[in-house]
């Protein structure tokens, strides 16, 4: 079999000079590739949007909250209200070696805040400098609370994005200014730009964060608080760690060991895993549907080529009469099929890449999306799809080619 | 002897077996201009198919240039057809989406001749048949006579041993028919080409130097027709 340029010119000629036939045949493949890539790219884009929502939140945090007890224990009645306190932090740190950072959180909702004539109602949060390991802030201006702020109980605050835009509508760097919350004045030391889909006790962009000890004292809570946020060491068994934390707290606060209501636990790893699985599911679905569409397209190509071969009986018969061997006819039809699938597929890739690019641009410019979102398919995905096209081309061309091979030159002369 | 047929038999096995060729014996010399004449159903098309290696025969012997044509693979048959036989059909059988010159190039393409050479040779034959200005035209832009000339150019371009013409004037008017037959006659005289014309028209047969009558699957009378006076048709330009 010869593989020279002439053979390809012959194929290109045949495809180019039967334009409507080529168009019709190629459309199925075009559509299949187009849909597959749009769905793949769209899925990736959605994932990156969602990931942005989770952005900055550590995936191995455990959040512990206190609730009313649901069982009588140690001489106490049920429905007893209890609080966490500062000594719990030290106890957990020593008794549960799986933990890395253990830090407290306190918050007051619906606090009036003001700067000059601007007011806003948000959340006042008391946090330790260590909290950054749980939720990484994204500073727009200034800095986050540090160790010194906490130790000296300095009246400083970090404000969230929405607080900032409401209290400082003209924009500009607000650090150094004083805002009033709950009859106290706090100096702004930073603006946190993070907007997260995961919120512990309220979204960071509606919050004003002050040092934890300061908050505790302002509220006269004597070291008591509601929430512990901790991160676990790399590779630690989070179920085991939670079990240990629970037993430590149960003992320290006389809670029945089998009371499932008193201590609330939230494991972010589980949430991330759910989302991850969701995307795995979506991906599988996309691939199944996409491949299905593509396969339908290939069957369409095969079908139309089958009809085409029938229609081309005379042409093929003539070719056979003047010296084409069956092998040449076979390779011609298969090459035509491959050429057609690749051509149509390339158009599909081109169009879907263009549309995904457009979608990425539009979505990235939406106000709620902070960063650039890419809807684009990867380079290797493109290559894989191209390979798939060649295989599909061969498969689609096989049946028609075999039928074309059966055509005898005499058939051409009978068909008038 | 260019063509030798010895007791060639052919039966079509359909619902009812049809014994089409019943022992054909025929010799054709190189450079002859002969016609095979018969009514429809006489077996002349079957004979043509066998002569053109388009179909197999059941028993007997068929030799071209002493080479036995028997039990050939499809590829081998294609090769023989390509190199030894040039076909001219009643319905021209040009490929519609190819220009005149491209149609002529096609047999050379299957021989593996390079593009440049192919084009050169095809143009040469196109010109010889007076179609220089029509080389870039598609078949549907040409008249019947022109199309048949393209087909003849295509048959000639591989310099075959035998030209097989199946009702070459079947689709043409009488004036064009005369032109085509004159052309075939001239090719035979000038280039010493072996031409076999299959026809049912006596006028067409009268152009040839030997007329082989076939009837009910056997060779009947073989007329020497050097004087071209076997029938009234064909003389003085009366063909149809």
Provide a descriptive summary of the structure in words.
The complex is a heterodimer of chains A (416) and B (240). Chain A has 416 residues and is an alpha+beta fold. Chain A has helices at 5-17, 19-54, 86-95, 147-151, 161-167, 212-218, 238-252, 268-311, 313-321, 326-364, 379-406, 409-414; strands at residues 61-66, 84-85, 99-115, 118-127, 139-142, 156-160, 178-181, 184-192, 207-211, 224-225, 227-232, 263-267. Chain A has two domains: 5-55 and 273-415, no CATH class; 61-268, no CATH class. The two termini of chain A are 31 Å apart. Chain B has 240 residues and is an alpha/beta fold. In chain B, β1 (3-12) and β2 (18-28) form a beta hairpin. At the A-B interface, α1, α9, α10 and α12 of A face α2 and α3 of B.
Task: Compile the SSE list and pairings.
The complex is a heterodimer of chains A (416) and B (240).
Chain A: H1 5-17, H2 19-54, E1 61-66, E2 84-85, H3 86-95, E3 99-115, E4 118-127, E5 139-142, H4 147-151, E6 156-160, H5 161-167, E7 178-181, E8 184-192, E9 207-211, H6 212-218, E10 224-225, E11 227-232, H7 238-252, E12 263-267, H8 268-311, H9 313-321, H10 326-364, H11 379-406, H12 409-414
Parallel strand pairs in A: 4-9, 6-8
Antiparallel strand pairs in A: 1-11, 1-12, 2-10, 3-4, 3-7, 3-11, 5-8, 6-9, 7-8
Helix pairs in contact in A: 1-10, 2-8, 2-10, 3-7, 8-11, 10-11
Chain B: E1 3-12, E2 18-28, E3 33-37, H1 44-51, E4 59-64, E5 67-68, H2 74-84, E6 85-88, H3 100-111, H4 115-128, H5 144-156, E7 162-166, H6 174-191, E8 194-199, H7 202-205, E9 210-215, E10 218-224
Parallel strand pairs in B: 3-8, 3-9, 6-7, 7-8
Antiparallel strand pairs in B: 1-2, 1-4, 4-5, 9-10
Strand content of chain B: 25-35%
What oligomerization state is this entry in? heterodimer
Number of helical segments of chain A? 12
Note the total helix count of chain B: 7
How much helix is in the residues of chain A? 40-55%
Helix content of chain B: 25-40%
Strand order of the largest sheet of chain A: 3-4-9-6-8-7
Q: Catalogue the unreliable spans of chain B.
A: none
Tally the beta strands of chain B. 10
Determine the N-to-C terminus distance of chain B: 33 Å
Order of helices and strands of chain A: HHEEHEEEHEHEEEHEEHEHHHHH
Low-pLDDT parts of chain A are none
